[in-house]
Amino acid sequence: MSDRTVGVGMIGYAFMGRVHSQAWRNVAAFFDLPVTPRMRVIAGRSKDATEAAAERLGWDEAVTDWREVVGRADVDVVDICTPGDTHAEIAIAALRAGKHVICEKPLANTVPEAEAMAAAAASATGKSMVAFNYRRVPAIALARRLVEEGRLGEIRHVRAQYLQDWIVDPDFPLVWRLRKDKAGSGALGDIGAHIIDAAQFIAGQHLVGVSALTETFIKERPLAEGSAGLAASGGSGRGAVTVDDAALFVGRLSGGALGSFEATRFATGRKNALRIELNGSLGSLAFDFEAMNELWVSDGGRGFERILVTEPDHPYVGAWWPPGHGLGYEHTFTHEIKDFLEAIGQGADPTPSFADGLRVQRVLAAVERSAADGSRYTTVED
Amino acid sequence: MSDRTVGVGMIGYAFMGRVHSQAWRNVAAFFDLPVTPRMRVIAGRSKDATEAAAERLGWDEAVTDWREVVGRADVDVVDICTPGDTHAEIAIAALRAGKHVICEKPLANTVPEAEAMAAAAASATGKSMVAFNYRRVPAIALARRLVEEGRLGEIRHVRAQYLQDWIVDPDFPLVWRLRKDKAGSGALGDIGAHIIDAAQFIAGQHLVGVSALTETFIKERPLAEGSAGLAASGGSGRGAVTVDDAALFVGRLSGGALGSFEATRFATGRKNALRIELNGSLGSLAFDFEAMNELWVSDGGRGFERILVTEPDHPYVGAWWPPGHGLGYEHTFTHEIKDFLEAIGQGADPTPSFADGLRVQRVLAAVERSAADGSRYTTVED
Amino acid sequence: MSDRTVGVGMIGYAFMGRVHSQAWRNVAAFFDLPVTPRMRVIAGRSKDATEAAAERLGWDEAVTDWREVVGRADVDVVDICTPGDTHAEIAIAALRAGKHVICEKPLANTVPEAEAMAAAAASATGKSMVAFNYRRVPAIALARRLVEEGRLGEIRHVRAQYLQDWIVDPDFPLVWRLRKDKAGSGALGDIGAHIIDAAQFIAGQHLVGVSALTETFIKERPLAEGSAGLAASGGSGRGAVTVDDAALFVGRLSGGALGSFEATRFATGRKNALRIELNGSLGSLAFDFEAMNELWVSDGGRGFERILVTEPDHPYVGAWWPPGHGLGYEHTFTHEIKDFLEAIGQGADPTPSFADGLRVQRVLAAVERSAADGSRYTTVED
Amino acid sequence: MSDRTVGVGMIGYAFMGRVHSQAWRNVAAFFDLPVTPRMRVIAGRSKDATEAAAERLGWDEAVTDWREVVGRADVDVVDICTPGDTHAEIAIAALRAGKHVICEKPLANTVPEAEAMAAAAASATGKSMVAFNYRRVPAIALARRLVEEGRLGEIRHVRAQYLQDWIVDPDFPLVWRLRKDKAGSGALGDIGAHIIDAAQFIAGQHLVGVSALTETFIKERPLAEGSAGLAASGGSGRGAVTVDDAALFVGRLSGGALGSFEATRFATGRKNALRIELNGSLGSLAFDFEAMNELWVSDGGRGFERILVTEPDHPYVGAWWPPGHGLGYEHTFTHEIKDFLEAIGQGADPTPSFADGLRVQRVLAAVERSAADGSRYTTVED
């Protein structure tokens, strides 16, 4: 392992904090890195919970103020795993303090916030990256490689869905992800952002305009623990859902492809079905995260080949296990951290950058404008 | 078999004529029908080809003028298997002559034609039906039954794609299906019409508005044999493609569901992937015609059940073979003819009716208007 | 259509009679044949039922004695669709009468019967064929083609299962297929014979020895209508099952491959899962009849290609519908009849011959001997 | 995390050492354990390689003699990840030294060794476990739960295959896994042992007799680095393969089920296809490790449900990520270590025990005896 170490500080210890910690703790056991991470400090609002998380997840220290993390000399990298409403403030402070920053997606809750973050990144000495982890699914990285090599020819169709069902029950509580002030948007920003980024990444084209519909099927939900601060809108303990439950749109991409996108949390029976299909003049490919070790590829002949993306020459895979011994969800984060550390070590710019994150944010904004404006075709700002 | 016979006359002997003939020839061997069809006469423009078709396909006689079929006393049923530009004239004449009429889809090339046909059907003594054969895939009929029984609860999402790839090659010739004057539209009317009808049928809801994109990827193609009458637009033997290669839209359905639809002939590697997925508050279902004997159903639990739709209690299936001995494409037509003959025998109105066909036509028109008008959300006429 | 006609007489009108009739009725509409079949006469024991079958299935006449069919001058082909205990007598009589004979599988109930039939066939002027219809599944015919072309290299493994579940219920009645005197054996001869023939056909190797187990899980069953002639063995209306419910064996093939075979009617949830996988030094292929239009092929790389066997250049497929418009169970019989008629017309010997049927019979016998003799490795007679 | 710690010493640092280390390093971050593991020491023959492994994999120290590990006071648990020929000596020494022992599979290279190990385990104060990790695939643990609950009824069929292809190339070198003196057997002990254990575990029945075939397709291979000590048997640098390439057998299980098993390294295109299917009187289930997060379950109706085994109430899954966010190969080891540590903490006996490992060893021996003795049905010793 490299003697050059980088100290890491993480903000947040919930779902994303747990999985990022897993990546930090294991990345050096599998990849030869130019710099070795040290898990210095984790920050959270609750002292007890943060200390417990630190011990369990492997962080040296726990603090209750993110500013302390940003200010520490032994922290080189700040990893932001908090809800979207706090990303801009933390990331900009960390960049100004000369830190490298990796920030969960979506980059921010609004385009202006994302612009400020991208501007801060552009003028910073530290490296920055937005954590669209699905780019690091080996099958998706392989898909990108095939497109780059021209195996699909000219891309005509990009078809992407992200289908979940965790809030189908109308009594599921009003968690922070269902409140616009915390989450920015609903299915759109949470999972729609992933398919927008992943599809643009694979296709090597970006959305230039969209015609969109959004919908909130369940307008009110029981207040959750943790959402108790909300004023109940309808009497006994229910509050308004202020984000979309589903967002779908058609659009055009910069290279001439047509796009069809759909993000929903109401696809009963679909758990984490991030699906992408591309059709080109020479071939096609299809992916579904529910079978994440498989990529389906057509060379234009009579069918699709199910490639088990577990061969040593597949992206990231050589570091792990023999063929057929698949990887899981968490490995996408290990790969992301690996690429981030390599960029830091080599002085290169990691991707997806904050500018890439801003681009996705602008698509999200165009979707919302189109939906609000009679689904009219709405140009994505440059 | 019933002693009541109905004489049948068919117009057209190409792809649709062949498969309809197969249905007429075999339906009485498998289903107990109130009336027994007699294959009296087939009409086509070429005398030799029509006579050869008659012998091969099992028709008693061949004629070269469709009017002769419509005028014959021994013909009770007229089956229209010609391109869309001729549907209105033939169907209206046949209905006025007191015949029962089954007409290939899409019902017509324009809304006014379809309106005239629906009006003729409404005032006719004969029965009429538009041949959206995919309603008679056992798996699709079963899907409809499940929705009708409330197994899916309230439908939130309708997701339908019809993906083919037969014109990906830019040197594929300019056949009649690529000319607006003959076919009305391209992928939209040819295959998009099928998923619109099938999805509306299963969901029990109809599209009320759409936001659409259409595209023609290959603008000119070599003139085909049979398209030789065309003026070459660009010099040596090429002509303009005047229909869409792909059409995609999002929309809203009458019962509150959101719809996402896509029809394309440029999905390399997809041969006849008519796919429909519905998500409801209690369950979901998914279908792909490339595996036509399977229906995937979720009851809202942890996954989808792959139902092999080959059980005796499944729609249409009891007439055929034991469980697991699947059916093919042609059987959808046999089922359609069976239902049509039953309706005739019972004096009932078969579905889908010409009014149903008109409704689909209006969706096609709304898609074209939306695509022409900045993808704006466009109301489907009532 | 050819002016040379051959008169056809069929013995039996149950399941196999219905599906063979479907083939005779339709084959000339899809294939250019050197001889055209005429459906002259069908024979069955019940006068009423046979006459009803004749009308429904399209036969000119009905008779109640199979000898009448064999003796008629206007019958050139005899099609035997009766239980196995009658095959030898009928087939030998028909061959001696100079008829062409197609006989359902298994060829006979015993090796001596099969030997007599093969001997009769060898010295007959008529052509003969045993109806292993699964050879005519396009995917299986394509599989054979790929092996023949050397695409799989040297075959190392042949893995075949035929899984059904129609008698899992212990109250399913004692039908003729569960009685040794009528059926010869149980799962072994009924469905095991199919996978033995199909696997040997695809591999181009035959089984030379086997080590087998058989089992009868449910020893007694309610007497069925039609089994009323049986003496109840255990009191009130139950009779002994005298055939195997399941048969499984490992074995060696003539070309050095290892085989693993399993036939059972107790695979709950499997309806007609005839599955074959071959592994060779260069590639592999896999098939499951429950998805009969698909063949999975590996070229030794990273996975399997799902080939939709619906392309014009695939075996038999060009006569039918466009790509992606699948075929069903019955088409395997149409293909079989087509090949049989072509052989008759060309004076060629159709396959599988009675000698091929005898070879399968000898494997069945070796399986039974091995199972009876401590599963010892038992040589298949030459 | 618990204050009770157990010191762990590992022998071996190759494939199994890497994946076991990953489990030790992470188990406490996800599971609440009664004892917390400390990764004290790793042993290997090469000093440099062992030290590098220690640093990379997270062990405090590296030593070159396994006896040192067994003798250390700060080591409570010995984890044996070496080839099979060393298992007995190390395990027995460790048990005698009062350590808890987890040992890679197969338990030993011979039945006498395994018997000695089981005897040592029975009289030891430490706990012992054999590392059949596939029992800890959540889908397999769920399968066991379903059988235990009676959901499948009486089990009739157990069908298991373990298909790999990593030595199809005849120029693949003669590694230790291809030498009987090191590995005991070939595909049989390496992967056949896994399906024997997993199938017996799920079915709750054990094999009582087998009829088997084994084969070595490629008799000689190039000497590998590391196999240089071998005398070349055929001249320039090739040595004899002394183990089976494939082993297949049919057999009977203690509860009346029939079994069909096949293990091969010559299934071209199959990478790690550990497949198990059980058919019972009420239902069936099917699994394939190449899609390890899925279990297919039939309730005897019309098909199989694809259960995504990622729900909180599925075995082991609640500790990880939300539904649909799948696990990978390595997690089976984390689950194994978790169960082992729980047993240690609670003073319970972990499973599979050395006695269970011995039982598998006896099946392997019966397979070899049967194969050597004309595939005769051979009783598995008790």
Furnish the topology, listing elements before pairings:
4 copies of one chain form a homotetramer.
Chain A: E1 5-11, H1 15-30, E2 36-43, H2 47-57, E3 61-63, H3 66-71, E4 77-80, H4 87-96, E5 100-103, H5 111-122, E6 128-130, H6 138-148, E7 155-163, H7 180-183, H8 187-203, E8 207-215, E9 220-222, E10 238-240, E11 246-253, E12 258-264, E13 273-280, E14 284-288, E15 294-298, E16 303-308, H9 331-346, H10 354-372, E17 378-379
Parallel strand pairs in A: 1-2, 1-4, 2-3, 4-5, 5-6, 7-12
Antiparallel strand pairs in A: 7-13, 8-11, 8-17, 9-10, 11-12, 13-14, 14-15, 15-16
Helix pairs in contact in A: 1-9, 4-5, 5-10, 6-8, 8-10
Can you offer a commentary on this structure?
The structure is a homotetramer of 382-residue chains. Chain A is of the alpha/beta class and 382 residues long. Chain A has 2 domains: 5-133, NAD(P)-binding Rossmann-like Domain (Rossmann fold, 3-Layer(aba) Sandwich); 139-379, Dihydrodipicolinate Reductase, domain 2. Helices cover 32% and strands 25% of the residues of chain A. Chain A is built from 10 helices and 17 strands. Chain A has helices at 15-30, 47-57, 66-71, 87-96, 111-122, 138-148, 180-183, 187-203, 331-346, 354-372, and strands at residues 5-11, 36-43, 61-63, 77-80, 100-103, 128-130, 155-163, 207-215, 220-222, 238-240, 246-253, 258-264, 273-280, 284-288, 294-298, 303-308, 378-379. In chain A, strands 16-15-14-13-7-12-11-8-17 form a 9-stranded mixed beta sheet. In chain A, strands 3-2-1-4-5-6 form a 6-stranded parallel beta sheet, sandwiched between helices. The longest helix of chain A is centred in the C-terminal third of the chain and has 19 residues, at 354-372. Chains in contact: A-B, A-C, A-D, B-C, B-D, C-D. Chain A binds chain D through residues 1, 15, 19, 21-22, 25-26, 28-29, 55-58, 164, 166, 270-273, 289-294, 308, 310, 320-331, and chain D through 1, 15, 19, 21-22, 25-26, 28-29, 55-58, 164, 166, 270-273, 289-294, 308, 310, 320-331.
